Design the sequence.
């Protein structure tokens, strides 16, 4: 049966050119209430751009044709704009927009008897209401990514002969064709590779341009990696910003994401570390985002954001304790305070990024799974020359309304950017926590 997709405002604003992302033999219907809302949209700048492009696109067609029989799009699908008829009394308990949206679906179902009417809406509550009225509904599938266990991990384990492994040690490169069953691997640029031979020997490499090369930047001098995955993460972090400007690290709590990131950042910040790569370290959190206002909280930005960044201070204490085990808590607090007083590390409200261009900075975004995709896009595009953006988070620990394990900023950027030469990714092993045995057991049993 032919399908006719009725798009909600949220669906239209989800992507530029959304009306042409359906098969050529389908129809796409825009309810008049949606066109009205998109035309007057005054929210996020990224969405404003999508809204403006959509209105221009609609305006480029013959208006009479759009609201009568519809018009053919370049991909062959039919596009129409439809206003709703008189509202059914059964919809009186809905909001005005919901009434008009669902009434449009009901009108189309009555008129287009040979087509299946499908409402596209991200809100499950609206979809349930539509289903109660006999309207099939579904989310916009381009924004729904695989379940956490099937998401991109940035690493793969493969088998090679001992001869191949010896060649890797000697020549610092091997071809992917030297790997057993290499055709079964979905190779992505900058994917990390654990090479294992039949003798039990192993090595870590990185895939680039049909070859596997060894780690070039990690040497253990910044901090000692506790496992293979942490070595991969440090390789990402220590690579120059012009080589690896975007780093994405996914992992459960306690796997060392923040610890490794801060250790690498401090080594490369001007006037503190051993290398003069970055002029500053910025640390942001989604606790306060573009959508919210922190003006009512007392104090300056550090005072307002400080309560949300206790984990950063804890990790700094761990870093200093590792380097100087003899120091007590008071001395460690002095070291941490010095870092902030000298502004080697600065706290950045995500809500105050708009319009900024951030050069020569390591910008660390923690808990990125709790940021909406469009907001995270705005953050990443702030990067100027010499800046490295580091996104940290756990896709399974989402606690913001409207987001879930398959739709959130961290997963969105990870899945969209996998294989891009600018992006280096790694997922840390949840079974290799640096926290106590109690913490590890709690994660296994109580979550």
Sequence:
């Amino acid at each position: 049966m032919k399908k006719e997709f009725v798009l909600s405002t949220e669906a239209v604003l989800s992507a530029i050119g959304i009306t042409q992302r359906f098969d050529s033999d389908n129809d796409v219907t825009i309810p008049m209430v949606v066109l009205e809302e998109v035309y007057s949209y005054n929210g996020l700048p990224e969405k404003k751009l999508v809204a403006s492009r959509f209105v221009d696109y609609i305006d480029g067609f013959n208006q009479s044709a759009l609201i009568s029989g519809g018009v053919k799009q370049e991909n062959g699908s039919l596009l129409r704009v439809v206003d709703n008829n008189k509202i059914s009394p059964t919809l009186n308990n809905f909001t005005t927009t919901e009434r008009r949206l669902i009434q449009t679906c009901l009108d189309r179902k009555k008129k287009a008897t040979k087509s299946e009417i499908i409402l596209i809406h991200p809100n499950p509550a609206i979809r349930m209401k539509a289903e109660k009225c006999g309207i099939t509904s579904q989310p916009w599938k381009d924004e729904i990514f695989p379940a956490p266990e099937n998401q991109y991990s940035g690493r793969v384990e493969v088998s090679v002969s001992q001869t191949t492994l010896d060649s890797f040690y000697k020549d610092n490169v091997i071809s992917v064709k030297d790997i057993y069953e290499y055709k079964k691997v979905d190779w992505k640029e900058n994917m990390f590779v654990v090479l294992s031979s039949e003798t039990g020997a192993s090595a870590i490499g990185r895939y680039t341009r049909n070859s596997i090369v060894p780690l070039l930047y990690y040497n253990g001098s910044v901090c000692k990696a506790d496992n293979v995955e942490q070595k991969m993460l440090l390789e990402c972090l220590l690579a120059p910003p012009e080589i690896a400007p975007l780093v994405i690290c996914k992992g459960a709590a306690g796997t060392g994401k923040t610890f490794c990131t801060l250790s690498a950042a401090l080594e490369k910040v001007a006037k503190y570390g051993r290398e003069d790569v970055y002029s500053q370290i910025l640390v942001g959190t989604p606790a306060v985002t573009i959508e919210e206002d922190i003006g009512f909280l007392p104090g300056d930005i550090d005072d307002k954001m400080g309560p949300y960044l206790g984990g950063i201070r804890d990790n700094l204490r761990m870093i200093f304790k590792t380097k100087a085990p003899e120091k007590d808590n008071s001395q460690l607090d002095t070291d941490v305070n010095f870092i902030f007083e000298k502004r080697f590390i600065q706290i950045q409200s995500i809500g105050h990024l708009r319009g900024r261009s951030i050069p020569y900075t390591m910008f660390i975004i923690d808990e990125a799974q709790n940021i909406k995709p469009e907001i995270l896009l705005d953050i990443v595009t702030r990067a100027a020359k010499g800046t490295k953006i580091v996104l940290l988070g756990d896709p399974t620990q989402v606690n913001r309304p409207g987001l879930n394990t398959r739709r959130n900023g961290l997963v969105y950027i990870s899945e969209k950017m996998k294989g891009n030469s600018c992006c280096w990714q790694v997922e840390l092993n949840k079974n290799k926590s640096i926290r106590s045995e109690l913490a590890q057991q709690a994660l296994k049993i109580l979550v």
Q: What stands out?
A: Residues 288-294 have pLDDT under 50 and may be disordered. The domain at 226-446 is CATH 3.40.50.300 (Rossmann fold).
